[in-house]
Specification:
Chain B: Keywords: Cell membrane, Membrane, Transmembrane, Transmembrane helix, Transport. The complex is a heterodimer. By secondary structure, chain A is of the alpha/beta class. Helices cover 32% and strands 23% of the residues of chain A. Chain B has a single domain, classed as MetI-like fold. Classes of the chains: A alpha/beta, B mainly alpha.
Chain lengths: 329, 297
């Protein structure tokens, strides 16, 4: 196993609000190997996006703050880095594709200008060189007539086109890691498939590592090598795609997989996990999922289980499994 | 369906033409009749202001004491005032003064207001606190009263009246820009600009400033109308233009004692103020319809 390109250790990002301190990301451990696609799944509000913004240190501050933990990118912890050093990493070594292609482009500038800006910023190229590079990028993301699109304003492009432009912008400097925060949620299904295909191609051809944040298990099954399932600011299960789908260990993961509609079954009602994600606060005790879990035991309400390895490369945070130990916090 | 296909074909044709938010706005603006009327009025007065020295039949200072308070005639189209000065000439030259005060006071307010508004909105915290409270203090006074106080301090002159009007109107633009920046700050494209590693200053000037321009343009156009009225009011009170400058407000106040005997002395400057202000208001409303996304549909 080679050295991971990104290793997040015990990351805690808290928000300090009027209602008190909210641990949106509450001690996360993740790693991504070079050339790997890691899926991060979980329902809304479980801390997926906060995790991805933390990696680029783009948490709005205040109210947010990385309280503790380390984010090691290519052997270097980026948490203590200064803003000016972070700017060299953003868009250059790590870049990000956002969920909303409709609002992620500045309406007042042409597409070419915006992609070119990234290139000029990090590569110090002239306008002319940047333009050639931009055309290359647009071609690479599968835009048929790059010369025409170059001079277009975002409002004249469709959602799928804009997301391609966003991807072109984020891969313009050949980053080693691409964070895609629900890149297809706002798109319709056929476009979704095209965009995912594009991301996979970039991953395969350029060996770019991808952290794919999504709530769509179908996307995960199709795209990812490994999966981390998040719940209420913690990773509850982590393993290869095969393990997670064939042998989900955590009751939450089992619930998630059951809630995916299947064509073959005739059951009328879709399975849903009862209850809601708990309101995060510093005073939560015990397993975060206890209130919704079918297998809840007295122990679950008292102590948080540790994320411990159950099989080779497959770990789970649950008291159901004997080797589990209590978490430090 | 036919409608749709027509749109699409015109779209593909338009691809190689310059098309942008401003061009689209101009297309929509052209369809707005009242706004075009406003633009026409403004252009009319601008042209008058430019060519005043060439078309004026007399000098604006020339007194013909034999012809005092003469009604409109072929020699004096708008009549004469109590010094026998030709009112047509003075109204023409008055356009220069009013437009000059209007434009420059608004430009001054916009520049200062925008800078303060951006600082307050983007950096927040104590900068916002300080700047916003400053705006609140200025807005706590009725604007004309504050303008009078400022002119009283600086001394009555047209230039000081311009400064006073500019200062009084800074908070209007400042608060507008601050509010716009606050909403823009959370736009995804600002986040994505940060995510590609752009510097704060660069984001401010190349992303936030251009996107906050539309409300400033609208408010600025309407603001010129207000500034012209305020300048006229200061002139009327003797705090703006000094004799013999032909400022419209000043002309009104100089002639008010003759309003029954020689009504033309107040009618023409009054109508000029009204038409200019109307022009800017119509155009400002039209711009708002075109540029403000909330007004669309």
């Amino acid at each position: 196993m080679s050295k991971p390109i990104l290793e997040i250790k015990d990351l805690r990002t808290h928000f300090f609000t009027d209602r008190g301190e909210i641990p949106a990301v509450d001690g996360i451990d993740l790693y991504i190997q070079p050339g790997e696609v890691l899926g991060v799944v979980g329902e809304s509000g479980c801390g997926k996006s906060v995790t991805s913004l933390s990696v680029l240190k783009l948490i709005p501050q205040p109210p947010g703050k990385i309280v503790s933990g380390s984010i090691v990118f290519k052997g270097k912890d980026i948490v203590p880095l200064k803003e000016s050093e972070m700017r060299k990493i953003r868009g250059n070594s790590i870049s990000m594709v956002f969920q909303e292609p409709m609002s992620s482009l500045n309406p007042l500038f042409t597409v070419g200008h915006q992609i070119g800006e990234t290139i000029r910023l990090h590569r110090g190229k002239s306008h002319k060189e940047a333009r050639i590079h931009t055309l290359d990028m647009l071609r690479k993301v599968g835009i048929a007539s790059p010369d025409a699109i170059l001079n277009e304003y975002p409002h004249r492009l469709s959602g799928g086109m804009r997301q391609r432009v966003m991807i072109a912008m984020s891969i313009a400097c050949s980053p080693e890691l691409l964070i895609a925060d629900e890149p297809t949620t706002a798109l319709d299904v056929t476009i979704q498939a095209q965009i995912l295909d594009l991301i996979r191609r970039l991953n395969e051809e350029q060996g770019m590592a991808v952290m794919l944040i999504t709530h769509d298990l179908g996307v995960v099954a199709e795209m990812c090598h490994r999966v981390a399932v998040m719940y209420a600011g913690k990773v509850v299960e982590e393993g290869s795609v095969h393990d997670i789908f064939k042998n989900p260990l955590h009751p939450y993961t089992q619930g998630l997989i059951q809630s995916v509609p299947r064509m073959s079954e005739t059951r009328e009602r879709l399975y849903s996990i009862p209850g809601n994600v708990p309101v995060l606060s510093m005073s939560l005790r015990g397993c975060r999922f206890a209130a919704r879990c079918e297998h809840v035991m007295p122990r679950c309400l008292e102590a948080i289980p540790h994320l411990s390895q159950q099989e080779e490369g497959h770990s789970c945070r649950c008291w159901l499994y004997e080797s589990t130990q209590e978490d430090a916090v | 369906m036919t409608q749709l296909s027509i749109n699409q074909s015109s779209d593909t044709i338009a691809i190689h033409e310059v098309s942008g938010p401003w061009r689209d706005a101009w297309k929509a603006f052209r369809k707005n009749k009242t706004a075009l009327l406003g633009l026409g009025l403004i252009l009319f007065f601008i042209i008058i202001a430019i060519i005043a020295p060439y078309i004026a039949p007399y000098g604006y200072k020339d007194q013909q004491l034999m012809d005092r308070l003469k009604p409109p005639s072929s020699a004096h189209w708008f009549g004469t005032d109590d010094f026998g000065r030709d009112l047509f000439t003075r109204v023409l030259f008055g356009a220069r003064i009013s437009l000059w005060v209007g434009f420059f006071s608004v430009i001054g307010s916009i520049v200062v207001g925008t800078v303060l508004g951006i600082l307050a909105g983007y950096y927040g915290k104590w900068a916002d606190m300080l700047i916003s409270r400053l705006f609140d203090i200025v807005l706590a006074f009725p604007s004309i009263l504050l303008a009078i106080a400022i002119v009283a301090i600086l001394g009555p002159s047209l230039q000081n009246a311009l400064y006073a009007i500019a200062i009084v109107n800074i908070p209007t633009y400042g608060r507008l820009v601050r509010a716009k920046v606050l909403s823009l700050k959370n736009e995804e494209y600002i986040m994505s600009a940060k995510a590609i590693g752009m510097k704060n200053n660069r984001i401010l000037f190349s992303h936030i400033l251009p996107n906050s321009l539309t409300p400033i343009i609208v408010q600025g156009t309407l603001g010129i109308a207000t500034a012209i009225i305020e300048a006229a009011a200061l002139g009327f009170l003797g705090l703006g233009a000094q004799p013999p400058d032909p400022e419209w407000g000043k002309m009104l106040s100089d002639s008010r004692q003759f309003i029954q005997k020689a009504p033309w002395t107040v009618v023409f400057p009054g109508v000029s103020i009204m038409l200019t202000v109307l022009g800017f208001n119509l155009m400002g409303d039209g711009l708002r319809d075109v540029l403000d996304p909330r007004m669309k549909n």
